[in-house]
Write a structure and sequence with these properties.
alpha+beta; EC 3.1.26.4; RNaseH-like_sf; 3 domains; six-stranded antiparallel sheet; endonuclease; Ribonuclease HIII; five-stranded mixed sheet; metal-binding; TATA-Binding Protein
């Protein structure tokens, strides 16, 4: 079965809807319509994407002259990938695979969250059409909505959260953030493999945050081994729907935790590591004490010393 996704302008999308009007069978959530014609399912989204699924999807899609087409033969620009032996094959992106990504690593406040997501081949085009892309390009509201959509579609995933108390203990123990992330990614992968059991996959793609030899060293120190057919790639969320979905689930959890902390402590706790964060940390220390800060922040960040200087003023 073929999956083709075309992109239309707002005006052209209206023409598409008019053409398929009498073939519309329902309107799924977050879509414009779903129509069935010539053994092809046509699903249109308000974003301008229209997905054609079925044995004759190619022929049906050819009726339209859209500015951009996505399918297995799409020419992609090469990703910015470090040269190593763990680069993914181009075919991975159009086949069932696991992708992993994390959130919260550059933020002073809040935990680190890591997700691993398995996307079967038949759902890749659908998730793309829904707008599953790098979470960094999405608003918090859209991230929360898309995360719910991923869950609603019964996409298998795992989600791990390293809270700040545990993070600071590991850091004092000598673990750097790279090792923490490597262990979280590897555990998320192993838990997901157990969850999907014997479902065949074409590989595992980790959104690369360190050189593969460093990743291998980190997990090896704790008695873990890299799973077969594991690949690393920078900016992987721009190529892999599985990684993009993982980035959304991880980010949604991070944002939820930040909101929870803000509600718990009675003021909006900012994301990132800017001067605004320094001021917020200083306010937190004055209100709750330095010991309590270790429960909500990554204490080894330079923001801690800056916040203490604010407090002494």
């Amino acid at each position: 079965m073929s999956n083709i996704v075309l992109h239309f302008s707002k005006n052209d999308l209206s023409k598409v809807k008019d053409y398929y009007e009498k073939y519309i069978t329902k309107v799924p959530p977050n879509s414009l319509f779903l129509a069935k014609i010539n053994n092809v399912t046509v699903t249109a989204y308000k974003s301008g994407k229209v997905m054609f699924q079925g044995d004759h999807a190619q022929q049906e899609a050819k009726k339209w002259n859209a500015p951009k087409t996505e399918n297995s033969s799409t020419n992609r620009s090469k990703a910015s990938v470090n040269e190593h032996d763990y680069q993914p094959p181009e075919s991975l992106f159009t086949h069932a695979h696991i992708g992993t990504d994390e959130a919260g690593t550059g933020d002073y406040f809040g935990p680190i969250t890591v997700s691993a997501v398995y996307v079967p081949e038949e759902k890749i085009a659908m998730l793309k059409a829904m707008g599953i892309t790098d979470s960094k390009t999405l608003t918090d509201e859209n991230i929360a909505r898309l995360a719910k959509e991923i869950v609603r579609e019964n996409i298998p995933y795992t989600l791990l959260t390293l809270d700040n108390t545990k993070y600071n203990k590991l850091q004092k123990k000598g673990w750097n953030q790279g090792k923490m992330k490597a262990m979280l990614h590897q555990h998320a992968i192993q838990k997901l493999l157990t969850k999907i059991d014997c479902i065949p996959i074409h590989g595992i793609l980790i959104d690369q945050f360190c050189q593969p030899p460093s990743f291998l060293k980190h997990i090896g120190q704790e008695g873990l081994k890299l799973e077969k057919n594991t690949f690393f790639m920078t900016k992987a969320e721009s190529y892999s729907t599985s990684v993009a979905a993982a980035s959304i689930i991880a980010r949604a959890k991070f944002v939820k935790e930040m909101d929870r902390m803000s509600n718990q402590y009675g003021f909006p706790i900012p994301k990132g590591a800017s001067n605004k964060v320094d001021e917020a940390a200083a306010y937190f220390i004055k209100k709750n004490g330095i010991e309590a800060l270790s429960q909500v922040a990554k204490m080894h960040f330079a923001n801690t010393d800056k916040a203490l200087r604010y407090v002494k003023r």
